[in-house]
Amino acid sequence: MNDQTPRRYKGTLLERAASQFHYAPTGPVAPQAPPVRAHAPAPTPMPVPAPEPSHTPPPAFVPDGPMLRRGAGEHEGASIAVPQQARGRRTAPIDRATLRAGGMIVPGGQITPLAEEFRMVKRQLLLTARAVAAKDTAKAADRARMVLVCSANPDEGKTFCAINLALSMAAEKDVEILLVDADFAKPDILERLGMPSGPGLLDVLSGAVASAEECIIDTDVSQLSVLPAGAKSNSDTELLASDRARAILDGLAQANPRRIVIFDSPPALAASPASVLALHVGQVLVVVRADQTSEGDLRDAVSALDGCEHIQLVLNSVSFQPGGRRFGSYYGEAGK
Ligand SMILES: Nc1ncnc2c1ncn2[C@@H]1O[C@H](COP(=O)(O)OP(=O)(O)O)[C@@H](O)[C@H]1O
Ligand SMILES: [Mg+2]
After folding, report:
1. Which ligand is located closest to the Cα atom of residue 187?
2. Ligand 1 atom 7 nearest Cα
3. Can you give the pTM of this predicted structure?
4. pLDDT per residue over 196-233, tens digit each?
5. Among 119, 286, 277, 104, CA closest to 202
6. What is the Å distance from ligand 1's center to 169 Cα?
7. Nearest CA to ligand 1 atom 25
8. C-alpha of residue 82 to centroid of ligand 1, in Å
9. Which domain covers residue 136, as residue numbers?
């Protein structure tokens, strides 16, 4: 499906999502997420980054780049990169066949249209992280390296996009990606990667496990690690809203200045943890499913998530044949 020739390709998924839903995307340093307006004129398209060479994309961050800057004395020792595979941490391979079967980016595989689209998406997120690092406090810079992938409703492609984004970002030279399964009610990151389960974020939040770093599973994809969701409880939202949660989540970014943390979120309109998570992160990517998400739902989702300053929409124009077989691709008819 993803190897189909793109039909009538117009703009990136970010641009098409913005224009289809009359949403002016936040620029790299836009101070506020603009409201979703029902009948506003289509916004001026965002500047599209120059196409990258397919084999050696330029590094998003250089070691002395703004993302790594810290205020004097903050996060002592943070400029020394934490080794990717911390001692004693578990390692598990990602099952390439499972990725392929799910229509996802396969590391080391062909450059597909899907991979190209995610390059655009990640570039915008990395630009925002860099711009915040250059202009704002060290704390804001750390938060800007935390990205929540959310959507209004279930089945709109949050997990699909979070995994593809993580795989795409892990190919960058100067970053390490931590993919966090934060959809506590329906955690499926590990299964979708073909990885074994383990303790995770909820166990750390509840105090059953001392440190999140202990739960992180390194993968055989260079620069990509996963933090599982952990054991469910009836008080996920309360656990997430606690000061302890804030410290733990901030700690994920502070532990490694090269780290980008991508959270796979529950749906914004079906569960309260999403809006709490939005308060903890520096960027939110709202997945809009072209054939499914209504503008009303999108508007409600964006307002549930507006605790975060930097919100962008991404268009997931997947479509399905009756009977469940996929035939569409990211390059659907939406956004024409
Ligand atoms: N662009 C896409 N191409 C192919 N399959 C997709 C795409 N987007 C979503 N899917 C599939 O649709 C289903 C629902 O997506 P998922 O990411 O699990 O949604 P959510 O996390 O929002 O509940 C999954 O089987 C997923 O693989
Ligand atoms: Mg999901």
Report:
1. 2
2. 318
3. 0.77
4. 999 999 999 999 999 999 999 999 999 999 999 999 88
5. 277
6. 19
7. 102
8. 33
9. 92-316
